[in-house]
Specification:
mainly alpha; two-stranded parallel ribbon; 4% strand
Length: 157
C-alpha cells in the first residue's frame, strides 16, 4: 500500500519522492504526519487543512443560533434530505430509489458498517471488493462483517 501512496504523491506533485514511505497498515494519522514532514497538505479524513468557504461558515454560524437545531435527529435521516437523495439518484442514474431505502448517517463509518452488515444478512456469500488506496478501517470492517478479507482491486499504472 505504501508504493501506491508514493505513486499517488508522485502523480499529484509531478515529482518523485522516494524518501516518502508508509509502512503497511499505516493509518490516517500516519498520512497526516508524513504530509506535515514534507510540507504537503493532508487530505486525510478529519484532518483537512483548508478552511470551509466563508459563505458556508456564515450559514453555519447563523444556523447554530436557531433553537430547533439542538436536538437529536432522526435515526434514518431527515425526510426532506432522503427525498432529495432519491431524486438525485433518479436524475443522475435513472434509477428509482424509494426515500425509505435511503440511509443517511453522520459520517462514513456508520454507513459502511450498516451497509456491510445488511449485505451479510441478505447475501452472506457475497464477495466484497475494495479499491486501493483504502483506509485500513474499510478492510477491517469487511473482515468483521464477513469473517474473511475483502478482494483488493489494485490501482492500475
Amino acid at each position: 500500500s505504501s508504493s501506491i501512496l508514493r505513486h499517488h504523491f508522485r502523480t499529484c506533485t509531478d515529482r518523485a519522492m522516494p524518501e516518502m514511505q508508509l509502512k503497511d497498515g499505516s493509518n490516517m494519522r500516519d498520512i497526516f504526519d508524513l504530509c506535515q514532514k514534507h510540507g504537503l497538505p493532508s487530505l486525510a479524513q478529519g484532518m483537512i487543512e483548508f478552511p470551509p468557504p466563508e459563505t458556508l461558515r456564515n450559514l453555519a454560524a447563523k444556523t447554530v443560533m436557531e433553537t430547533g437545531v439542538h436536538t437529536y435527529r432522526t435515526r434514518m435521516g431527515e425526510q426532506d434530505y432522503r427525498d432529495s437523495i432519491a431524486g438525485l439518484v433518479q436524475k443522475v442514474y435513472g434509477e428509482t430509489v424509494q426515500p425509505d431505502n435511503v440511509l443517511a448517517v453522520a459520517g462514513v463509518a456508520g454507513g459502511v458498517t450498516a451497509a456491510l452488515f445488511h449485505l451479510r444478512k441478505s447475501r452472506p456469500e457475497a464477495n466484497v471488493a475494495i479499491m486501493e488506496p483504502f483506509y485500513t478501517y474499510h478492510s477491517l470492517e469487511v473482515e468483521r462483517a464477513f469473517c474473511r478479507p475483502p478482494t483488493v482491486i489494485p490501482v492500475a499504472g
